[in-house]
Amino acid sequence: MNTDAIQPAIWTGRYTRYVLAGYLRHVAMVASVLMIIALTIDLWPQIDLVTASGGSGSPHGSWTLLRFSALRIPGLVAPLLPFATFLGVAWAEITHTQAGERMFVWNTGRSPSQCLPAAVLLGLILGPLEFTLDAYLGPQAMAVQMRERLGLDGQRLDRTRAGDVHWIASSTGLLKAEITYGPPPVLHELTFFKLDDQNHLIEIDRARSAHQVSGTATWLMEDGSYWVPPTPSADQDSSAPSFVADDPGHHQMLPFAQRSIVLNVPPLWLSVLGVEPQYLPISVLRALEPYDEAPLSRGLYRTRIQVLYGEALLPGAMAVLAASLAILLLPYSVEPLPVFGIIMAGYMAHAGTKACLLMGQNGYMPAGLAGWLVPVILVAATVAAFRILGYRLGRPLKAAPAEP
Questions:
Q1: Torsions phi, psi of 377, nearest 5?
Q2: Quick check: bond before 290 cis, omega within 30?
Q3: Could you give the CA distance from residue 10 to residue 24 in angstroms, rounded to a whole number?
Q4: pLDDT per residue over 229-270, tens digit each?
Q5: Integer Cα distance of 256 and 200 in angstroms
Q6: H/E stretch holding 118
Q7: Bridge pairing between strands 201-212 and 218-227
Q8: From start to end of 19-132, where are the E strands?
Q9: 3-state DSSP call for residue 195?
Q10: What global pTM score does this model have?
Q11: Is 394:333 a contact under the CB 8 Å cutoff?
């Protein structure tokens, strides 16, 4: 069995270090350009709002703008880093071919598979970085914006703001209420339509406020009124409607000082209602995962968790695919059509991750499939490319001697 490709020299030799440095340099340049473009687009509609929040003096406004930009960077870079990795690796491979380095490598007897350790090492570096940015730094930065009401998103997602009316479906009925998000959350000006197992209306409750009884699904309403349908008499058809238009007594609401209702909606879910999943830390996503089913959600939080785990593999899969496509399509010279094909392959992978995320969060795709489909396809495409390359070269993929 040939073990040249797994010898330490293949992974730590001069060639691997040289290629890895080139990958890192080109990925950093591409990521910087994409970040500048994304940050410019993001800041343009809210720059006046951000600078005004720093005070009337220009030094304060400039410092606030710089600080706000730093807070926005993690959330803007994380979605672009895998695509930037693909473009950076492809760019580095194109420069190798243009400089004649590819021909030199072939003449040394190095096999195609022995050209991949640098791409794998790049994935081992950028994968944890991608996960840290998207799972921790991005949500923490957004938490600061929400707490300080910085920018459009910070004001839109402000947890101290009240007055928005929400309609919430639970397993026990339909709720209409304003929410003080807390935690703990408090319901205001609520109306609860209680339904039975056949979705028939059996009770209406209105109250000025309600708060959860700690550790239970019971909510205590205060200062309100309720309605229950009258019990049909023995000679009355039980299938007759509960509401009778010409009998106002059937519509009378009975007042109460306190009354309890069962509302199967977790307080944490109410506290983050309206906050997009990408702005929630992974600890909150895991806590919400058991409740991530209809009628509250259709896989919103489960999909986000699986996508985060898949993102740890995605930069490496992008890097290996870009390197393998360049080796396959640009072995000796750079032609426009193969370069365009390589770039389109990376863009399709980038768009595929977004499409899977949307389908998973809307219940059209299982969460695990949404998070792992694209990385698995990229790995399979890399294997296929090397199979084709092996047959084309007419020699084993691991035939080169170990690097000195």
A1: -65, -40
A2: no
A3: 18
A4: 876 555 545 444 444 434 444 557 888 888 888 888 888 888
A5: 23
A6: helix 117-132
A7: antiparallel
A8: none
A9: strand
A10: 0.81
A11: no
- 363 backbone φψ class: left, alpha, beta (φ>0; ψ -120 to 50): left
Structure tokens of 293?
A: 């089913």
Are residues 169 and 295 in contact, defined by beta-carbon separation less than 8 angstroms?
yes
- The phi and psi torsions of 135 (rounded to 5 degrees) equal -90, -25
Domain map of the chain by residue range? 4-154+300-393, 159-230+248-274
Mean pLDDT of all residues in 361-382: 88
Are 187 and 209 in contact by the 8 Å Cβ rule? The answer is yes
Split at pLDDT 50, 70, 90, the class of 82 is: very high
CA 155, 157, 158, 164: dihedral to nearest 10 degrees?
100
| Residue pair 189/176 in contact by the 8 Å Cβ criterion | no
Any idea which residue has 């809210």 for tokens?
46
Task: Give residue-wise pLDDT tens across range 111-163.
Answer: 777 778 889 999 999 999 999 999 999 999 999 999 888 889 888 888 887 76
Longest CA–CA span in the chain (Å) reads 100
Please tell me the chain's helix, strand, coil percentages from 3-state DSSP, rounded to the nearest 5. Answer: 60, 15, 25
3-state secondary structure 211-247: EECCCCCEEEEEEEEEECCCCCCCCCCCCCCCCCCCC
DSSP strand pairing (165-170 vs 254-262): unpaired
Residue 364 CB coordination number (10 Å): 12
Phi, psi for 225 (deg, rounded to 5): -150, 160
The encoded tokens of residue 382 equal 């890399």
Q: What does the pLDDT look like over 9-59, one tens digit per residue?
A: 677 778 888 889 999 999 999 999 999 999 999 999 988 888 887 554 445
